[in-house]
Amino acid sequence: MTYKTVQEALRAAGIVMSKRGETHRINFFFGLEDTAHYTTSLQDALEKGLAMARRQRSVRVGPDPVTLLVKPIQLPRFQGPLGPSYARHDSSV
User: Fold this and answer.
1) What is the pLDDT of residue 37?
2) Whole-angstrom Cα Rg for the chain
3) In degrees rounded to 5, what are phi and psi of residue 71?
4) How far is the first Cα of the chain from the last one, in angstroms, to the nearest whole number?
5) Is 59 helix (H, G, I), strand (E, B) or coil?
């Protein structure tokens, strides 16, 4: 198992991995420091990263919370003299 193969597998799962010296850091994309995990083992990085991705995926199941808060607006249809789908502009006015 190489660093590159683990990094690609985690990236496909939504986890970013970086390395400084012998220490591997895994985190969510745009994750804060409090969600980061540090290890020196590639196997541990892969296992922890995939576990993080599974937890993240299980949290995302269901409707988007923003859509629950925002109600779509209903725009009124323009009622022209020939009906709702035929609005014409009278240029003689």
Assistant:
1) 95
2) 26
3) -90, 135
4) 79
5) helix
> Residue written as tokens 């892969």?
46
- The first and second tokens of residue 6, run together, are 């683990």
Least Cα distance to 28 among 2, 62, 54, 6 occurs for 54
Q: How many CB atoms lie within 10 A of CB 15?
A: 24
Question: DSSP string covering 10-48, please?
Answer: HHHTTEEEEEETTEEEEEETT--GGG-EEES-HHHHHHH
**Predicted local confidence at residue 56, as pLDDT:** 77
Q: Do the beta carbons of residue 81 and residue 88 sit within 8 Å? A: yes
- Measured CA to CA, the distance from residue 11 to residue 60 in angstroms comes to 18
| Mean pLDDT, each 10-residue run in order, the chain (93 residues) | 91 92 94 93 93 77 52 60 55 53
